Amino acid sequence: MSAAVDGTDEQSICIGCGLCCDGTVVTHLAVRDESDLGAPLCGLGVEIIAAADPPVFELPCPAVCDGVCTIHSLHRPSACSQFECKLSRAVLDGEVSPEEARSVISATLGSRQQVRAGLLNEGVLQEMLTAYFRLGD
Question: Do 91 and 135 belong together in one domain?
């Protein structure tokens, strides 16, 4: 077990991961309203599904490239900045080191690639996502 860390390490594990942004962990992200998306995302064609309660936008997010948010410094929806997965929480709580977390992320990304190539059963990936990323499961 590691000592508790500040948000810097937690944020560093998010960069290059992007599993929450690309639709792998979750398929939609809740927003307050269209202004929460901001001009950068609206300019990329993201639309709010207003019929949902709360309103959501569908993932994958077009602002993510290779696990990195390309509009992070311009405007991120509050839902993005507030999203937390089990792994990021474990790093912040000092239960998992950033290095261990990056290893889990790498293994999960590799498993996702194998699923997409038809080399691994989808159930294996879903078990990883539940174990390491999805809160409440």
Answer: yes
